[in-house]
Every structure is written in structure tokens, then in C-alpha cells.
Amino acid sequence: MNAQLRTDAGVDARLRTYDWASLADELDAHGCAMLHDLLSPSECVELARMYADEAHFRSRVVMARHGFGRGEYRYFSYPLPELVSALRSAAYPQLAPIANRWNATMGLAVRYPATHAEFIDRCHAAGQRRPTPLLLQYGTGDYNCLHQDLYGEHVFPLQMAILLSEPGRDFQGGEFVLTEQRPRMQSRAEVVPLRQGCAVLFAVHQRPLQGTRGSYRVNLRHGVSRVRSGQRHTLGIIFHDAE
């Protein structure tokens, strides 16, 4: 079934089936949370196949040229593919209340509007007009260094990655890794066991953590460990646009 057509089933309806209170608790506790089976295998295959068609994209980045790791990725151009656009606009309203609560807890003045269209208008008014959803492609020996996806003044503090390939069948290795640096402590690593069609929500930059003397900010980075064999594709959904 074509990935574009399955949006008729309603990405928004799919996302509403998840327990968002529990997901918020996971994000508060660990900085990440999983959405199992968000996309079907056929949708994953259709999205991964888009990588070969330059018409969908505004740019291609070869990671080794920039010291980002090994592998490559392409940023989608506007208009986004229907399924990608639907995921972005439908997930945002579920995440905005969490983002606003996090900012309030961390003493940050920024608040996020109720809809993604309103937030994108804010980005575009500030000169952040380039779309940031992307497809990533890894082959044997490829990896993604720990990083943060910050593209300008306006940053939405949560993002989503969806694994389009099946571990153990399409590739070996290539685990999604999240690290968290707490003040005066060594970094904590989290390995997220994604399967094909599963999504991980995670903090882009900082999140609040409750300590014995109140809340404080912790810094997060994410990446992908070395792919030992095969090929791995991922869809990245970033909610702010780039300068």
C-alpha cells in the first residue's frame, strides 16, 4: 500500500491511541519514550525508497565531510510528503504541553502555541524557513556522532525518529543512543531498542530533572552506534525549521 494513501486512515487518530500521560512520564524520567508500531512495514518501505529520488529533497549531507560520523542524510523540501507532513503536524499538539511544562520548570520564558502551523509561522517570521524533516541512510561501518539538532533561535525541545528498517533482517548494530549529562556527574547512556515502524520521542537539547533541592537542567545528545552489516534507514521529524 502506498505510504501517501495510508494517511487517509488518519495519522492523528493513530497518535491518539497512545497513552500520552504515560509517555510524558517516560520523557520526564528518562528523556525519551517509545511509540510502538507507529508506521506499518509498507509505509516504512515506501519512505525508505524515497531516499533515491532527489526530487523530494533540498540537500544531501555526507557525514564524513563534516565530522558528523559516517553515512548520509537528505533534508526534505517543501511541500513535504503527505505522510511526513501529517506526522509532524499531528505529533506536535501532543508534545507542546510537555514542552511548555518543561520550559516553565526550567524557568524559560518561551511558550509554544497549540498548533504546529502557528509554531512554523513563528520560525518563518524569524528567518527559519528551511524544512528539517530528513531521511538518514547508513551502510556497513556507518554511525552518527552524538549531537543536537539546533538550527536557529527557535527550537522545539522534543523531536521524533522512526526506524524504517528491521534490525536483524536489514542490518546489524546501529542502535539509537541517547546520552545525558547531569551537573557534576558522568554521562548516562540510554540505548533505545527500536524495531521497524517504531518511533522514539526524545529531548533535543535540555530537559528538567527533579533533584533533592529542586529541578535543574540536564543536557542531552543523541546518535547512532556503528552499523555492523546491512543498511539502515530512519525518518527524523524535527518540529522547528532551519535558518
UniProtKB/TrEMBL annotation:
<comment type="similarity">
    <text>Belongs to the iron/ascorbate-dependent oxidoreductase family.</text>
</comment>
<dbReference type="GO" id="GO:0016491">
    <property type="term" value="F:oxidoreductase activity"/>
</dbReference>
<protein>
    <submittedName>
        <fullName>Proline hydroxylase</fullName>
    </submittedName>
</protein>
<dbReference type="InterPro" id="IPR005123">
    <property type="entry name" value="Oxoglu/Fe-dep_dioxygenase_dom"/>
</dbReference>
<dbReference type="GO" id="GO:0046872">
    <property type="term" value="F:metal ion binding"/>
</dbReference>
<dbReference type="InterPro" id="IPR018655">
    <property type="entry name" value="DUF2086"/>
</dbReference>
<keyword id="KW-0408">Iron</keyword>
<feature type="domain" description="Fe2OG dioxygenase">
    <location>
        <begin position="129"/>
        <end position="242"/>
    </location>
</feature>
<keyword id="KW-0560">Oxidoreductase</keyword>
<keyword id="KW-0479">Metal-binding</keyword>
<dbReference type="Pfam" id="PF09859">
    <property type="entry name" value="Oxygenase-NA"/>
</dbReference>
